[in-house]
């Protein structure tokens, strides 16, 4: 069965600093990988996705993520954080064959200090 | 363009009652999925419907059911509510499969 681990429940960064949110997955083959962001009172918004090909994926809002098969990781990065990036971030994994049933991590809460 | 809409926004029910949650997908989207998000956790997949047929089901009891209508809107029904059903219920729509979903704001269900 597939699973996702986001080891950091909370991350605090200063505005303008760089950011890396960790995500580790468990799946027998190459999975589909996703990062979503959820602001308070909002639904989830897709930041970026990886299906195949280039392992460095560019997303919206200046985010990027790198798929590392050897480490079973798909970490999210941003070079300079803005106060508006404060939100909950979820990593998700999906099976690549048959019915796609996504599995989400428990999320990482990003706090941005001015 | 309107995004995914869900109703109601908030709902309070008593244990043992029944609840119906509604979702309208983005115009042109034929797939609707439902998720349960318990406080402090990530969303958990409940159902996916495409062209009015169930395409996927998560690990939820039979008290949970759903359907999709000819206009692609959807209802999620939960019978015999338990305290543990208190959660944010999210609906997401996509053109066909779930690879690029658009989420609604959710319905906050509180069971007392």
How is this structure best described in words?
The complex is a heterodimer of chains A (114) and B (112). By secondary structure, chain A is mainly beta. Chain A contains no helices and 12 strands. In chain A, the strands form 3 sheets. In chain A, strands 2, 5, 6, 10, 11 and 12 form a 6-stranded mixed sheet that branches. A 4-stranded antiparallel sheet of chain A has the order 3-9-8-7, with no helix packed on it. Chain A is globular. With 112 residues, chain B is mainly β. Helices cover 0% and strands 51% of the residues of chain B. In chain B, strands 2, 4, 5, 6, 9, 10 and 11 form a 7-stranded mixed sheet that branches. In chain B, strands 1-3-8-7 form a 4-stranded antiparallel sheet, with no helix packed on it. The termini of chain B are far apart. The model of chain B has no long low-confidence stretch (mean pLDDT 94). The chains are: A mainly beta (114), B mainly beta (112).
Overview in brief:
By secondary structure, chain A is mainly beta. Chain A is 0% helix and 51% strand.
Radius of gyration of chain A: 14 Å
Query: Which bin fits the share of residues in helices of chain B?
Result: under 10%
Most strands sheet of chain B? 7 strands, mixed
Shape of chain B: globular
Based on DSSP secondary structure assignment, what is the total number of beta strands of chain A? 12
Percent strand of chain B equals: over 45%
Q: Structural class of chain B, please? A: mainly beta
Care to count the β-strands of chain B? 11
Mean pLDDT of chain A: 92
Radius of gyration of chain B: 13 Å
């Amino acid at each position: 069965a597939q699973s996702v681990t986001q080891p950091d429940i909370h991350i605090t960064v200063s505005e303008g600093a760089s950011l890396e949110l960790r995500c580790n997955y468990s799946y027998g083959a190459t999975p589909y990988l996703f990062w979503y962001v959820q602001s308070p009172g909002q639904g989830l918004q897709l930041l970026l996705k990886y299906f195949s090909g280039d392992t460095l994926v560019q997303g919206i809002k200046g985010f990027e993520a790198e798929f590392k098969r050897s480490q079973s990781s798909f970490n999210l990065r941003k070079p300079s954080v803005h106060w508006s990036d404060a939100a909950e971030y979820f990593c998700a994994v999906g099976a690549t064959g048959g019915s796609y049933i996504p599995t989400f991590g428990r999320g990482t809460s990003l706090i941005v200090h001015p | 363009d309107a995004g995914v809409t869900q109703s109601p926004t908030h709902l309070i029910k008593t244990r043992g009652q029944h609840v119906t949650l509604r979702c309208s997908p983005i115009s042109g989207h034929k797939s609707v999925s439902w998720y349960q998000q318990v406080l402090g956790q990530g969303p958990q997949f409940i159902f996916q419907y495409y062209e009015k047929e169930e395409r996927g089901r998560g690990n939820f009891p039979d008290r949970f059911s759903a359907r999709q209508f000819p206009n692609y809107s959807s209802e999620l029904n939960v019978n015999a509510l338990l305290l543990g059903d208190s959660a944010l219920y999210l609906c997401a729509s996509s053109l066909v499969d779930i690879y690029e979903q658009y989420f609604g704001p959710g319905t906050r269900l509180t069971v007392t």
